[in-house]
Give the backbone structure.
Amino acid sequence: IFIIDSLYFTDSGPFGETSLENPKGSVFMIDLEGQFIRPLALNCLAYPCGIALSLDERAIYVSETCKNRVLRFVLTTGGQYFFR
């Protein structure tokens, strides 16, 4: 049995308003057990549109299209994510 306790998703920001010069994109985590949504990056990314979880579930990778890069958010022992 595979149990999912968290979901992650990107929001590219308001259509036509987010850009390289004006990043409005975000990354969110939904905690299904505690039933809350937490932003990992809020209104600061230039069109995030892809997301992947590492095999050990300790890192989240997000593609930021307008900057042509992949960001890594690492889970700390305290349960917080930080950008690295």
Summary: The beta strands are 6-11, 25-31, 36-45, 48-53, 59-64, 69-75, 81-83. The chain has a mean pLDDT of 89. The chain is about 0% helix and 55% strand.
